[in-house]
Amino acid sequence: LASGIARGVVRPPGSKSATNRWINLAILGRRPLQLRGALVSEDTELFFEAARRMGISISTEADGVTLTPGPLPAAGALYCGNGGTMTRFLTATAAVTPGRWTLDGVERLRERPIGDLVEALRRLGAVVRYTGNAGFVPVEIEGRVLEGGRTYLEAGSSSQFLSALLMAGQVARGPWEIEVRSLSSAPYVELTCAALASLGGRCERTAAGFRTAPSALRGGVVEVEADLSAACYPAAAAALTGGRVEVLGVRRDSLQGDRRFFDLLEAMGCEVRTTEHGLSFRGAGLEGLEVDASDVPDQVPTLAAMGPFLRHGLVIRNAAHLRIKESNRLSAMVRMLVAAGAPASETADGLRVPGVWAEGVPPAGAVRLDSVGDHRIAMSAALLALRRPGLLLDHPGVVVKSYPSFWRDWSAIVQPSQ
Question: Would you please indicate which residues are annotated as catalytic (active-site) residues?
């Protein structure tokens, strides 16, 4: 992995969060939908294939992807790999789409719980059967048009449970009243509601949670904005190395949840400016933080990689649900930091990383790091290596899950220190 200073210009790919929502809405709405700037990655390719198995034809053009509905098949096997988002969305979508559907994925996906979502759907009349361990895929679903009704939901482990219900509720026969008893990553629910509204969908907040109403979802053309999760890595690189990077196509008023990461960079002491085409980031000596990560869970590994270089270090709270992501991201980052020579420890709901290299010089001995098959762990390792030389990474190709061009873009902005 390269060490050096981050300087230059980079354009991240289209938003994975948004692309996944548009694919799901194309399946539900059964209207032609063109996605300009859609992300094409391992995760979204799996979702496109699932859409094909649910009767949607996919064509790829120079500027995006078009989804066109065809006849709905009577049954289909939907393979989700390790895609947590598509698994949660498709569990609800299959439940309201007539047919017999099965969902499964890799072994790690079988360890990522969906029980709270399934129980919420069952209370609305959905037929979902576990064919392995209760609460996890694989599942068999008898899809049908559901009536209106009431349910409650525990979404403390993933806001995607709620987003899945809000989207599926558009094609029910009557309104759904959803009592939300716990919720993490709330900004991503805003993203779902905005996507629904843009296609004529209806959902609204209530005192207890949310209410959906049946709607005829439109087709048309949508612009997929740049992925803020991907943008956080070059932004953090500039902050960490004292360089300057302009990230094109990103906005601070985006509804993507990781917009808050830019606020955290400013709180550390990084300069963040709006440019004509995006945002620029200029680094300096960085102060430590105590972070409530409930709204920015994907950036916990990013923050952890920065932790040893922050004066007074880093404390991360409200991140216990990271243990059920593509990997156990809390323990994975602790192992990585300790292997690199930085003391770090796991807490009940987060991490503590002392700022041992804020003023001192990190070691430079060769150390091999494990990406644990997780794209965000691999990209965070690249960030750590900017100021901790000698790091080697096993299986760097896992970044294809969300950012296939990551290593090319990274090499374009990382310049050797003078």
Answer: 298
